Amino acid sequence: MSFLNSLFRITPLFLGVSIVACDGPMQTVSLTTEDFRFVPELVRVQASSPLTLAVYNAGREIHEFDSPILMYAAKTPSSDAAMKAASPGIVLEPGKSVQLAMAPPPGTYLYICRRKGHANMTGTLIVE
Ligand SMILES: [Cu+2]
Q1: Which of 55, 38, 32 is nearest to 102 (CA)?
Q2: Which of 4, 58, 74, 127 is most exposed by smallest CB count within 10 Å?
Q3: Does residue 7 carry a pLDDT above 50?
């Protein structure tokens, strides 16, 4: 449980900006959940560098982040833990954020919010 809690940390508010450092050792992508969409809805990263995915809930509603194939494909300890925590999804209360470290292989990964009535909340991560 304490390890699970360590996955969650509060970070300063940042709006949905996709920051991709192609030449650095680590790429950080910041996703924001709003009421009711992901910002950005399309993210492109390089497969050659590990990825930190930060998801922040800037909305007033509880949102979830779920991407089962991404979690499975990434196969990192933190994503394994996240996958266990993410059944059915990582729940983000308003103002909360989660950071996931992963190294997904090239592919196109859909991410969604599973909350009832949030069916339009989807986005796509392209690892190329
Ligand atoms: Cu939602």
Answers
A1: 55
A2: 4
A3: no
**Residue with the larger pLDDT of the pair 5 and 77:** 77
Backbone angles phi, psi at 75, to 5 degrees: 50, 50
The enclosing H or E element of 20 equals none
* Cα 59 to ligand 1 centre (Å): 9
SS (H, E, C) 68-128: HHHHHHHCCHHHHHHHHHCCCCEEECCCCEEEEEECCCCEEEEEECCCCCCCCCEEEEEEC
Give the distance (Å) from ligand 1 centre to CA of residue 30.
16
List Cα–Cα distances, 100 to 24, 78, 88, in angstroms: 18, 7, 16
Q: What is the dihedral of CA 120, 46, 54, 9, to 10 degrees?
A: 150
Measured in Å, residue 48 CA sits from the centre of ligand 1 at 30
Which fold is adopted by the domain 2-127? Immunoglobulin-like (2.60.40)
Ligand 1 centroid–CA 24 distance in Å is 32
User: pTM of the full predicted structure?
Assistant: 0.72
